[in-house]
Amino acid sequence: MEELYQENAKIVYHFLLSLCRDATLAEDLTQDTFLAAYQSLERYDGSCKLSTWLCQIARHLYYRHLAKTGREVLSEPEDTAQAFIPTERQPEEQILHRLELMDMLKEMQKLPAQTREVIYLRSTACLSFREIGQILGKSENWARVTFYRGKEALIKAARSAGWEEK
What's the pLDDT at 140? Predict the structure, then answer.
């Protein structure tokens, strides 16, 4: 079990952090995830990667936590804007880039919740479409199409706002 933890703890933690954006909560839920996995290890059938199965457990625990605390799913990362600003840019470029990113995150708010979740899982957790589909209980093709449609909606919003394309 220790080896299982060492191989997958970072993946589960970063997945949870992308959902809740609270390091302490992500750590707690990561521990809870491995406890739940240990208690239900006999139900793992090998039909998906172990990390995908653990992320499914983590996701369920996160939503259960939200239900218990009466909170809603966060829809925008709090510190994402800072993470995407390269340090080699001039200060003016950094400010413009940050403003464009904030506008893009606001546009993401307009997307359906599952579309946002697919985009976050793909871009921050670097999961495959197959893994995203398994985590969300959908098909790989659904995850791919949902990501594509969300990306197209964001590109359209960027073009209409006149943001520079990268």
Answer: 92
